[in-house]
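Bug #77: duplicate submission created two jobs. Keeping one. Sequence:
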Amino acid sequence: MQNIELAFFYIKILTYCFAAIAAGYTVADLDTEFLDQATNPEWQAVIIAFVAAGFFNFEIAHWRRNIIEILTITTVVTGALQLLRCKFKKNKK
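Kept job's structure:
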C-alpha cells in the first residue's frame, strides 16, 4: 500500500507542475519580454524546484533524499518542457 501512496504523491507533484504551467496562459497578455524569460530552462528549473519543494516536509534526518527527489522532479519536468518546446514551437518570422 505504501508504494501506491508514494506513486500518487509523485503523480500529484507532476500534475500540479503541469497545471501551473497551463495556468500560465492566463497571463499571456503580459509583456512578452517578461514572459519570454520563462522559456529559458534556468527559469523553468527554478520555478519548478520551488513548486516541487512545496510538497515535501523537510526532515533534517532525510534532507539529502528530499533534495535529490526535488532535483530529480525538476530535471524531469524541465526536460519534458524543453522537449515540448522543440516539438511544438512556432516558427518566428
